[in-house]
Design brief:
By secondary structure, the protein is an alpha/beta fold. The protein has helices spanning 10-22, 29-42, 75-78, 118-126, 152-155, 162-170, 187-197, 205-209; strands at residues 4-8, 59-63, 71-73, 81-82, 85-86, 99-106, 115-116, 137-141, 159-160, 175-178, 216-219, 232-235, 246-248, 252-255.
Amino acid sequence: MKIKMHRLTHDKGAKKYCRGLLWNRRLPLFQRISTFLWKVFSGNWLKPSDFPNSQFLSLDTVTLTTHMGTHVDAPIHYGPLCEGKEARSIDDLPLEWFFAEAVRLDLRHKKIGNNITAKDLEEALAAIPYTLKANVIVLIWTGTDKKWGTPSYFREAPGLDRSAVEWLVKQGIKIVGIDTYGMDRPFDIMVAEFLKTRDPNILWPAHFFGRESEYVHLERLANLELLPSCGFKVSCFPIKLKGLDASWVRAVALIDEE
């Protein structure tokens, strides 16, 4: 789905607002008609020319899914149940999850279509070195964000396998971020492997693990090369969208410069 945007300009906004005042749909029909006629014939109504430069306020309308751009997936995205209970939507998640100490793991050596495994994460962590703690936000750096704007962004990337996600969740991690299209490998690669093997474990293992243990994805990050490996915090608060499966975020890193 493409993002659709429409702007009601300042000029058109003035006309539309004034027309709305003339024909008040909140009134009963008879009262609506009589009020309209009285205003028109008396001239006692707000006109576009009454605004400075005949301009009112603009209004933008944007149509998109909750998974466009940098966003957080809620547990309900993975399936209807999580840990045997009704999966939580984005507005139900604790806000403290979304502002926390963070660590960046360098997985740029992983090739297109590779699985990022628990062993890969342990090795990346040992290279920093850093002691992983519960509730730290873990960022997976693959460098795929540099393909943004090309078809390769959606088709050429590594992704986490079940072992990687399971290992992180066992460490008490609640948010895992990545600079790729999604947490799993690209769709075409997974589907092609599945059709050869018919092994259902190949399909979206990182997402589907969220049905067993509660955690969330922070997907489509960018500029992770600007961050240190550790010594910073991440703010990635979701919008409070009642009952929905994801939310757009403005992910920001706060770096300790001392």
